[in-house]
Write a structure and sequence with these properties.
alpha+beta, 6-stranded antiparallel β-sheet, 3 helices, 26% helix
Length: 139
Amino acid sequence: MTDEEIYQKVEKRFYSQDFLSFVGMKLEHVERGKVIISCENKKEFSQYLGYMHGGMVAALADTAGGNAASTVLEKGKGVVTSELKIHFLKPVVCKKVIAVGEVINEGKNLIIVESVVKDEEDNMLSKMIATMFVIDYNI
């Protein structure tokens, strides 16, 4: 698959997900094995101390990792998250959050990914590792 075909496949899947558009996630970069997304931090994402809620941080990391995994799949396949572990390293208080997802191991049925969530100044805010389960996907 060419770089352009990979981008088009990821773009189609990314922008067809209502949750991602609802929270304002944007696709910034796609290459085989790597996806970068961004999201503006909103007051509505805050927990009681004013930081971005951990669930939203995890959603960003998971979305970047899952889309990175989809770049290595053959036509007709997709992924769902089987498990993930995330380390929250710093509170998220920045205006824009960037999540970089990368494939670290490709298997036939399982793909291992990692994602780093950063602020605009490239400071690491969280790190996730996840297992993506490969499924048949014909949408």
